[in-house]
Amino acid sequence: MSLIFSAPCLAFLIQSYEGDDGPVGLRWKTDRVTYFLNGVGSEDMEPETAFGAIRQSFGIWAAVESSRLQFAEGGVDANATANRRDRRNVIIFDETGQTLQAPEGTGIIAVTRLNSDVSTGTILDADIIYNGRDFTFSVTPRGGQIDLIDVTVHEIGHFVGLDHTPLTGSPSAQPTMNPFYSGSPGEAASLAPDDIAGISHLYPTSNHVSTTGTISGIITNPDGEAVFGAHVVAEAADGSLVSTLSGAEMGPEAPGNYTLRGLPFGDYTIRIEPFAHGITEDSFSGIFTNLATDIPAEYYDNVTRQDLAQTITIPAGALRNVRGIDFVTGLSLPGYPFVSSLLEPANTPDANGPYEVRARITGAQHVALLVETTYNDGSRTTTTIPMTTTVPAEYRAQILGRPVGSQIQYRIAATGEEDRVSYFPGQQTWLSFGVIPLTGAPLAFAVVRSAGAVRIFDTGSDLEISRVSVGEDPIQMVSSLDGRLLFVADLAASQIAVLDRATFQVVARIDVAAAPLDMTVSADGATLYVTNSDAGRLSAIDIDSLTLSSSWLVGQTTAGPYGVATGASGRIYVTDLNADELIIIEEGQVIQRLAGPSQPRALARSADGRTLFVSSFDTGIIGRISDEDGSVTAVDLGVQGTFAVLAHPSLDRVYLTAHLDDMLLVMEASSGRILERVDVGNDPRGLSLSPDGHRLYVTSATSDEIHILDTQTTATVGIYVAAGGPRGIAVVESPDTRSTAIDASTQPGQWSLSHLFPNPFNPDTQLRISVGAEGGTANVQVYNALGQRVRTLLSANQLVSGQELSLPWDGRDGKGRNVASGVYLFVLNTPSGRLVRKGLLVR
Predict the structure, then answer these.
(1) CA pair distance 843, 732, nearest whole angstrom
(2) Neighbours of 809 (CB within 10 A)
(3) Average pLDDT score over the chain
(4) Which end of the chain has fewer CB atoms surrounding its CB within 10 Å, N or C?
């Protein structure tokens, strides 16, 4: 098995082949395996440096407490060779290609060759061979160097009998046994839950067997035929993943059967999904051929979203093996209408409404929207709204405006032939949103790419207040000059989604050329310019009418255009990444090409537009461009590369994200001198200033964080958690308060306790209470699932009738310690009784 190099883009499988009596899995018969080091070592480093990294890598696998497998070094031998039949397990660097014999350009970084008993699967010999001819290895990699520890940990996985995993994700989340090298050094230094489950299944300790469970079922298609090779994933409440393929254990004898093993006791959601990120059946060995690689994704039981999925619990004790979690591929049930969501309202500050619901529905004779609203005073109303259609199979309905503080939940009932009813999201489940108050402070809108959404934070409370779905692959964001509209580039859909700041609703989707990426607004605020990175074009959108006004071919760009900015002259600048050039456009025509830094990525303009700044994706050079004469000067920043760039409108500062160095650079604009280097999480990408320029917001795509810095001191003053790979960000003024004020007509009534938002949460959430007519004493306590009190959020003796209180919780107990992931109860005790809400903390 080999590791393949891939650009950056936890199923465990056992290496198996078809034997006479069914699939045979590979594993060592002994619990202690000896390996030998070829004494020549690597040409890229001192032998002891390489050997130390290899020993450390074996130690990572040996440290798995639930596995009994250990390793011993047999010594360093200059004559040791990779021979499959000598029963010596050799680790060797092949600097000439004679041992590996891989053609140049294959991308193979390393290979583990196994020899095993054909009848039992017992491993007899295993050799790890590094491709030193085509790759440079290092323990502190820079540029295109390969992290020796990452590669070795992966190959040891094959060495013990594990196959590649179909699980993917960000470099920090994907398992070690993913077939592609991520290019993010150090990510394999700790094993993912899927890796741990794999080695623990092969070499389990007695404790592992008694403290974990299984989830199993059968995958079939709508015709009842078993589906072989479907990717099945279990996700725990803390976000850890374990997966397998249907048929992995029994092969053709039971091709649709699957078993997820090594699952700790607790709650899980189960899903099936297609392969992604370049993984195909060619990524696997042995029996894994003719796999179902393109099945539609769905969660158990017959839903498309995790928040609607049925929770499967593995309890401690004799019932720890859960069976019967079966899937029929596709979401349609024979004889019933099919319902899928097209548009769902999200939390909004807009009390005026309406809030539109749209769905794609087939096979229905009539469709209704069932709505329940809970108001601040605890009163509740129920309404039924007919859903109508003007476009075939597309139904819509509008929910009228509600007072701020209202919680609205709804579901769709589609009735077909013989009065068969399909409910969405389910007969006993609801979709929900709230009409929320704002603090009046600026709002931060951040694109979370893998979630296909925008997360919205109120910077006054520092809490996430809404999450809006915006497209298939959203990546960048800018705002109109007045902050009224937010523009989101959707790479996959080739659209610009337009988000209204006052309502948090998508008000338009504008089709543009392929792969829209970076955007900028003209100095007069009238035009949005969009680079189309797969089309070699630049699109212009009229902001007033939200229509495409022009689309220009910007020449034979070899990659892009990517970055875009305008100068004081009105000329437009875009970057050609592979040609190392900047393209200048005037009145829709390319008038000049400038030599820029290597791989010029993003552009920013100074406040007066006389100077433009361009980042370099793969070097530490920043280019400064004179809009007046087109001259380009270069400054070496001393980093591996820069991504986003932003000039402060009033301070003599330029900010750049050093994505390969995990830091923010603060540069003096006039001199090019570096003032500060600030750690800001992994893979920083996006930048935005608060409207007053006092705060800088930095998104970090791999660590799922937004760092907030004081622009005067460059001190970090806060961090938002933004799971889903945050990229583009825009911070704008809060909308006016006429649509966010508490409805004055609402009179004090009963005590109420709102739902938590967000929920699930990590690590912060919030809830609101409304004081009942009698006022008086109240407290809010947080309890864990064992009934133990972990925190008091409120203890008050003289609350006033009608008073509104917002209560945040930061996931800590009364002593300031982080509490574990899990379900927590929030209990409001009042003179009138007790109210309870449930929340799920996912770390």
Answers:
(1) 29
(2) 22
(3) 86
(4) C
- In 284-320, which positions are buried (b, 16+ CB within 10 angstroms) versus exposed (e)? bbbbbeebbbebeebbbebbbbeebbeebebeeeeeb
Cβ-count burial of 591 within 10 angstroms (0-12 exposed, 13-18 middle, 19+ buried)?
Answer: exposed
Tell which phi-psi region holds residue 148, choosing left (phi > 0), alpha (psi between -120 and 50) or beta.
Answer: alpha
CB 262 within 8 A of CB 223: no
The answer to whether the beta carbons of residues 14 and 201 sit under 8 Å apart is yes
Q: Which CATH superfamily is domain 2-190 in?
A: Collagenase (Catalytic Domain) (3.40.390.10)
CA distance 230 to 611: 54
Q: What is the DSSP string of 245-306?
A: ETTTTTGGGSTTEEEEEEEESEEEEEEEE---TT--GGGS-TT--S--TTPPPEETTTBSSG
Superfamily (CATH H level) for 207-328 = Immunoglobulins (2.60.40.10)
Radius of gyration of the chain from its Cα atoms, rounded to whole angstroms = 29
The token pair that represents 719 in the structure block: 């961090």
CATH of domain 338-434: 2.60.40.10
Q: What are the φ/ψ torsions at residue 226 (nearest 5 degrees)?
A: -65, 140
Sort strands 611-616 and 621-626 into parallel, antiparallel or unpaired. Answer: antiparallel
Output the pLDDT for position 411.
95
661's enclosing H/E stretch is none
Query: Which of 311-325, 344-358, 502-516 is least confident?
Result: 311-325
Are 478 and 491 within 8 A, CB to CB?
A: no
Q: How many CA atoms lie within 13 A of 555 on its CB side?
A: 19
Cβ contact 698:642 at 8 Å: no
Q: How far is CA 364 from CA 160, 334, 384, 390, in A?
A: 54, 13, 17, 14
pLDDT value for 110:
87
DSSP codes, 668-724 = ETTT--EEEEEE-SSSEEEEEE-TTSSEEEEEETTTTEEEEEETTT--EEEEEE--S
Query: In the structure, what pLDDT confidence band is assigned to residue 10 with cuts at 50, 70 and 90?
Result: very low
Q: Minimal CA–CA distance to 141: which of 198, 106, 189, 186? A: 186
Prior bond of 301 cis (ω within 30°): yes
Q: What percent of the chain has pLDDT over 70?
A: 89
Q: Take residue 405 and report the two structure tokens written for it.
A: 């503080």
Residue that the structure tokens 């919030």 belong to: 766
In this structure, are residues 802 and 770 in contact, taking their beta carbons and an 8 Å threshold?
yes
Rounded Cα distance between 275 and 293, Å, is 5
Cβ(498)–Cβ(505) below 8 Å:
no
The residues, any chain, with a CB within 8 Å of residue 318's CB and separated by 6 or more, are: none
The C-alpha torsion from 720 through 726 and 729 to 733, rounded to 10°, is: -40
Whether 338-434 and 747-841 share one fold: the answer is yes
Q: Do the beta carbons of residue 503 and residue 458 sit within 8 Å? A: no
**CA-to-CA distance for 535 and 554, rounded, in angstroms?**
9
C-alpha dist (Å) from residue 57 to 103, 152, 352, 477: 27, 6, 60, 41
Residue type, 541: I
* Contact by Cβ (8 Å): 606, 614: no
Cα–Cα dist 290/284, whole Å: 11
Architecture per CATH, domain 476-737, reads as 7 Propeller (2.130)
Task: Give the number of other CB atoms < 10 A from CB of residue 718.
Answer: 14
Phi, psi of 591 (to 5 degrees): -110, -15
The H-or-E segment that residue 842 falls in is none
Ranges of each domain in the chain? 2-190, 207-328, 338-434, 476-737, 747-841
pLDDT in tens, 749-804: 678 888 777 777 778 888 888 888 888 888 898 988 666 788 989 888 778 887 77
Residues 358 and 398 sit within 8 Å (Cβ to Cβ): no
